[in-house]
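Hi R.,

Here are the chain sequences for the assembly we discussed:
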Amino acid sequence: MAGAQLGPAASIGIEKMYDFEFDRPTSIQAAVDSLKTEEALAFSGGQTLMPTMKQRLAMPSKVVSLSAIEEMKGVRVEGSELWIGGATTHATVMRETAESYPAISSLAGRIGDPSVRSRGTIGGSVANNDPSACYPAGTLASKGVIVTDRREIPADEFFQGMFMTALEEGEIVTAVKMQIPDAAHYAKFIQPASRFPLTAVFVARYGDGVRVAVTGASESGVFRWTEAEEALSGNFSAEAVDGLATPDGSGMISDLHGTGDYRAHLVKVMTKRAVAAC
Amino acid sequence: MKVDMKVNGRAVSGEVEGRTLLVDFIRQTLRLTGTHVGCDTSQCGACTIHMNGEPVKSCSVLAVECEGAEITTIEGMANADGSLSTMQAAFQEHHGLQCGFCTPGMVMAATALLKENPSPSEAEIRHHLEGNICRCTGYHNIIKAVQAASGQDVQPVAAE
Amino acid sequence: MPKDGGIGASSKRREDIRFLSGTGQYTDDINLHGQAYAYFLRSDVAHGKINGIDTSAAEGMPGVLRVFTAKDFDGVGGIPCGWQITSIDGQPMQEPKHPILAEGKVRHVGDPIAVVVAESLAQARDAAEAIMPDIEDLPAVMDMKAAVQEGAPKVHDDLTSNLCYDWGFVEDNREAVDQAIKDAAHVTTLELVNNRMVANPMEPRVAVGDYAAHSGESTLYTTSQNPHVIRLLMGAFVLGIPEHKLRVVAPDVGGGFGTKIFHYAEEAFCTFAAKQLRRPVKWTSSRSEAFMSDAHGRDHVTKIELALDADNNFTALRTETYANMGAYLSTFAPSVPTWLHGTLMAGNYKTPLIYVNVKAVFTNTVPVDAYRGAGRPEATFQLERVVDKAARELGVDPIALRRQNFITEFPYATPVAVEYDTGDYHATMDKVLEVSDHAGFEARAAESKKNGKLRGYGIAHYIEACGIAPSNLVGQLGARAGLYESATVRVNATGGIVVMTGSHSHGQGHETTFAQVISEMIGIDADQVEIVHGDTARTPMGMGTYGSRSIAVGGSAMVRAAEKIINKAKKIAAHLMEASEGDIELKDGAFTVAGTDKSVAWGDVTLAAYVPHNYPLEDIEPGLEETAFYDPANFTYPSGGYACEVEVDEETGRVEVMGFTAADDFGNVINPMIVEGQVHGGLAQGIGQALWENCAYDEDGQLISASYMDYAMPRSTDLPMFKVDHSCVTPCTHNPLGVKGCGEAGAIGSPPAVINAVIDALHRGGYDVPHINMPASPDRVWAAMQGAKANMGAAQPAARSTDTAEGRSV
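And here is the predicted structure of the full complex:
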């Protein structure tokens, strides 16, 4: 069947963003080369980036889509290690980790909505490091390692504050590796408008200790609640959390949906609930 | 640049800019105006279509990213004879729409659900439609329509 | 046995076919040959002096056709206000000019400064970014109470203050009310906020202007609930276009909820620019733009006092309300806190003395106007909260306290100037208790407690007034419009019928329900009836759809026109059957002569009307087309009992709605399926207002909840299945169908039911929280519990800069 030839949309003119060049490489190397253009931007699903660009808050000269790079897709389990390709969608992670790492499957299955999960990717999420994103908490709690085109970065060093990461100019998140814990749970309290976490806590219990990662709450982005980790490593129970002081609310986000003190309180409540559900 | 894709079973190609959104390509270039735009923060779901069988928000996908993709819009949902699909008919039967603006996205999202989960519970339907905002119905009759489309028994339409 | 057609049948909606197949025709789906695109540059500051606007760079940008600023509108009028309120001192309200584009000052975030019209929207937007406005920041006027203090910065420099009006109602009652409150055995006082809302129909507003040089006719396609009102206001007051040269079309409209009633600057701009440029000009609002340019709703701060005697009879009610008008007067803004609010303060109760004071205030915010319910939700919320609080203070059952004070005899003249024709409040109260299984509540509460949740049950009973009328009365009250409705019934030669109504459907399903009425009256299949609406060129002058008026007013006009048709058709039938007109009966689409077997079919009569060979030409004209204008004698008064059941998570403050029951008395019902749907939607909006939705500004006038990222729209996972009932029926006594209207009830009755349930749950958990402002968001509920725990008296959470209530308590 012959394809209908249609006129350019530009003549109708409803584009809202600044214009840019577009590239859709099929290998990591080609993507890295493509990103050498000044003001080029890697685009991995774009579920956060697209609204930002529509508001003209970002004006890349070039958008390099990572969606056609097959070597960055998929989920693999090697022993106790889970490997998730950077361009793997939330929907795929949800389906393919249901057996191997149910807490991550559950986290992926609660990001946004089905349409967002069809497009959004783990690489895009960790690279963006939105202070209210889900994956940074799951990654940090799961002894995650961020694999890039040039190195491997432990999650503890990768997440450096609100929208800040250790990524260098043009560096691509090609995969995220996690250690599968003995037990884990992600307790999420949603902000009623955006449905992002107002505060959410990922608890992972390993033979050598417990990790507690918090998202949505802090002005410094995702963080580990070390007091809770220590207490839970000795006594993995909700009561152990009860005994802890509520984290300091002064560094927490205060906005229309909750004060810093409220978020600090939620950190404790959500930690307790995550532990109870493990 | 040029982009080729299949929309509702028909091969189409068009000239687009890098920034052209899929929804604008569908609405403006293809003049398929059944897909609607209700927000600019990827939240409302009025623009939901199917891309390679999966629901996506066409306001959050670049047209150039759809090279080679199979796209289905609300205009491609009816049966071959032009009659309403099971899901569309259930929306009418159970009054799952009022102003009709969110409806195309809602039907696309609900249809995608039944492909994955042929007999969803009320809670599963609600969870699946969380990204499709309706301001008219309070969702009550949408839930009933989806249950009915999946072959589940639902209460009669109105207290009569 | 349910009917399958006509009045009372749950007929499936015919309009659904196009909406479900993607062939609806919404305004943004209209693309005219050669159309250009408008992009509005809007103020990003709340209040500022415009020292100059440099458009030179923008004018030279690719694709730009013209850049417009205020100076291009010399000789063009401002956006008019359609209702004038008179203050206590007899002075008319202060009415500032509302220019199409900002003149001299910008007065709210979103106030349009300039418009670029270009070949493409991208070019228009690119050029708008090159416009250099020189704006000097001025202090933002945000707090209503501070705004009316002496020496406060003024939103409008040419007005004497920020006070639009100071309204007292009924002024003659004032002293008696004051005395009754002094003499009362008990007075319950409550200060509360009715939170600012954004209507958020899913279809953003769109305007397409067109000008036909050959005829000199302008056409505006617009997302409106009332195209004739737009034609009148824009033609006569803004652009000076006579109505015969102006056509306004509102095609499929994707929801309105009040915010698409009003005449907006963008409509006038596109119509004006199309004529100037000799090109169609299109503007499509983005959602972000909608948040700062669609009129908002509610935003009242009220102190209410309820006086009771020693036997708990209500003796007097006094309120003082500050009502936010925003920066300009939107079309019907002044009427909302006054005639649509004060007149409802009696509620369902026989309180003998009532005094309502309303101070309307200009602030540097988006204009505020009617939103689903408009004034009536504000009245109901105050009343149903203060009654609940009184019951708690007195230690009596809130249901019994309501019942004791219910009005039981009709007609009932309230002390706030209206007369309820019918109602049976005990019946709807009985019904809501039954359907919500009130008797089983304690067992459910115990079950919740086992699961660590606090369960609460809240009741509210409401009255509302629909189909505001009659026109001569509303004229005295300050309306600058009539409030009748019109219909033309055109019968075609072969018997098919076209009804051209001034009502407008933007989701209500008129194409189905109006056809059901005609089908019932004539006895022909509804498929033979076409309903036309939304085009001033095709329908008689009508006032449109808002205030739940369509079936009560528009439906009545249609019935009147159809009655004229039937009367004329009977004359024709009498002639054809050589019988006396008085003996003719119309049933099931045929005319018969009483007591005989003579019959002539509907189609034979209609054919005779247009092919009048055998026809009483000496007595009647050929043809079969009639128009009626119906002006109601009174409002209609739907009422109902609503019950909400919630669970409060004590640890997080999150409120979950476990059940919601609505038992409404809408009078007669045309299509039960559609009525239920209307109630569902209203409930979602009312519950949304009570728990999540909040349009918030900071103290500098920045809109904080400016998108769906921060303005919480109710989602599918937030709401339960509803239980709705409309089996309690007291038909309206003064319209031909006995109908009352159902569009807004859900949004009116539900907010107090939700908050009453939340307060009940908190008290059951031992938290002495007397009131919590809407939305009862998790953080607020949690803070209220903390406050109660710490025994901090009023137990209100600390005001935040983002609270709309901040610093506003009276």
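Chain B touches chain A through 47 residues (CB under 8 Å). Chain B has two domains: 2-76, 86-149.

Let me know if anything looks off.

Best,
T.
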